[in-house]
Amino acid sequence: MNIVVCVKYVPDATADRRFESDNTVDRVDVDGLLSELDEYAVEQALQIKEKRADEEIEVTALTVGPEKAVDAVRKALQMGADKAIHVVDDAIAGSDAIATSLVLAEAIKKAGGEKPVDLVVCGLASTDASMSVVPAMLAERLGLPQVTLASVVETQGDQVRIKRDTDTATEVVGGTMPLVLSVTDQSGEARYPSFKGIMAAKKKPLETWSLGDLGVDAGQVGLSVAWTQVEETAARPPRTAGEIVKDEDGSGAKALADFLASKKFI
Counting CB atoms within 10 angstroms of each CB, which of 127, 134, 137, 244 has the fewest? Predict the structure, then answer.
């Protein structure tokens, strides 16, 4: 079985995040890491491999991004992925979800080679854009069915069955591989790389591809052809002093309710 996990390098949410002059996210001069939500996708791919230990299964981590994005697939290798692919090209900068899905789809096709990919695994969403649309776009571009937002994943033969929790019900959805799967942060805690895994990752294959390697025209990607655009950004306002509500005369509860209502919290 051939499994590809799509992962993303995102700015560290606990660090200082900035925008470029064109209102795109600065991904070069800030601290970044493998998106936490994509760690769950890596974990589920590895669990599938471990549960089907009698089969020959290869897990490939795939990312698209600047040079520093290689850290995302290195983390996946340390967790246990067998090999990694990093698509990097200056023309990709500023791409929206549509262009990103194009590059990912072509990379997945190339990664399959003579042995087409059986399963494409994605996280719930990226922690920077939070659009959650790339899995569906990948399924469309690859001509594959999709089972998305899985909190539980089970496989048997070429069958995949998931449990999906919605606001009103829990659904059980199944599909036949090859397909695209996305998982939520409820699917199981992602493992930490062990010292053995970190050392082993240094010897695992890691390929770097450009748009030319994928046969993608640079005019199909980038900010100039993006369907979405950030028009304006503003710095987060400084934290202000809190407001103390006293209850000396029994009016504290009403004052607190009025305050919450004025902020539209209730």
Answer: 244
Q: Quickly list H helices, the chain.
A: 36-51, 70-79, 97-112, 134-142, 195-201, 211-214, 252-262
Pick the residue with more confidence: 31 or 222?
A: 222
In the prediction, which pLDDT does 234 show?
80
Q: What does the alpha-carbon distance between residue 72 and residue 7 come to, in Å, rounded to a whole number?
A: 7
Residues 6+ apart with CB under 8 A from 48: 1, 3, 57, 119, 153, 155
Measured CA to CA, the distance from residue 72 to residue 80 in angstroms comes to 13
Place of tokens 């990226």: 126
DSSP, residue by residue, 160-224: EEEEEE-SS-EEEEEEESSEEEEE-TTS-PPPPPPHHHHHHHTTS-EEEE-HHHHT--GGGSSGG
Any idea which of 70-79, 176-185, 244-253 has the lowest mean pLDDT? Answer: 244-253
Q: Which residue has the tokens 């900010």?
A: 223
Query: Residues of 105-136 as b/e, b for ≥16 C-beta within 10 angstroms?
Result: bbbbeebbeeeebbbbbbbbbbbbbeebebbb
